[in-house]
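Quick start: read one record
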Amino acid sequence: MTQPGHWTLSPEALGRFLLLLDADIIEAGRQYECLRAKLIRLFEWRGCRIAEDLADESLNRVIRRVEQGLELGDGDVPRFSAGVAHRVFLEHLREVKRQPGAHDAPAVAPRHETTDLRLVCLEQCLDRLSNEERDLVIRYYAGPSDARIRNRKTLAKEMGVAANTLRIRVFRIRNKLEQWIEERMRTSAPGGDQP
């Protein structure tokens, strides 16, 4: 799944990318691993059996774009990486369909059409949120369920708010997202009202 004009990751390119994440190399490494883990979960959530490979491919493409001069501001790296990961996923699906015998051993687990539509709508609606709201809701729900309580306490502490205040903020954002998703699903479903 390498793009035309074969590009290989160099230590220098990785170092420059890590500096985008944080000036402290140890913290940058931690953030890189967190970003990679999120992308892996994203691919796993979509049913990909080679989630780690696709996450690595996504990050390599992001690093290559940065090497080519793309400027990303604070907080832009995760969002841009998610966008690249989405394109990598679509390419992966096309590649799987072209492979002989793909129906025998799919690389993507089948999902119900409604679930797929809901996921697409969720991604589109997340883009409608402000950067702060999107980052907040993603961080609030990130990680395995047993680690979420600890993560949410840390998030509340970072924001300087009580845990209940954090829950209320996320609840309001989630309500807004759910309304947008339902609207989009009504207009996107076959026979739905098109605007």
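Residues 78 and 171 are 22 Å apart (CA to CA).
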